[in-house]
Write a structure and sequence with these properties.
five-stranded mixed β-sheet, 8 helices, globular
């Protein structure tokens, strides 16, 4: 059957708002006729900030505290978007992960990534280490924290 891609920004926004798991996001990214250019066009039409707010809002729900153990820190995400760069954060502490707009006060690690690579990372399609090795992800700060962090989330 597959995903029916909407023909307008409002339809795409509604579809994005219905996404709550990495598997649903993967299905959207792999719908017939969807490539990186189409995704970028829809993200821009739907509103880059709305899309990123949704992604970072969902990250906390996919965090698995048992996998992180005592792992804690703040991640600064510098995201390259069709409308220019955006900065977001993900704070991991006390068995929770919360994300939002803006830079953390003191990032443990900073990641630079395109919006498309961020989406692929969130679906589990792009491995963080592979992303760094291929230049899709730029990393600075605590490299070990950055490498371990990907294993702390549920991508199903």
């Amino acid at each position: 059957m597959g995903v029916q891609i909407p023909s307008d920004a409002d339809g795409f926004k509604q579809m994005l708002e219905a996404v709550s798991t990495p598997a649903e996001l993967r299905e959207l990214l792999h719908a017939d006729g969807v490539d990186d250019k189409v995704v970028a066009e829809f993200v821009r039409a739907a509103g880059v900030d709305d899309v990123l707010d949704r992604i970072f809002g969902l990250m906390g729900g996919r965090f698995v505290p048992e996998k992180a153990g005592d792992g804690a820190g703040s991640v600064q995400w510098n995201v390259k978007t069709p409308d220019g760069p955006r900065t977001y954060h993900l704070d991991i502490a006390g068995g929770r992960a919360t994300g939002g707009r803006g830079a953390p006060a003191k990032p443990t690690v900073t990641l630079g990534v395109s919006l498309i690579s961020l989406l692929r990372l969130c679906t589990g399609e792009l491995n963080g280490v592979t992303g760094v090795m291929t230049g899709k992800i730029k990393i600075s700060g605590d490299l070990m924290f950055g490498a371990k962090m990907q294993g702390w989330f549920d991508y199903s």
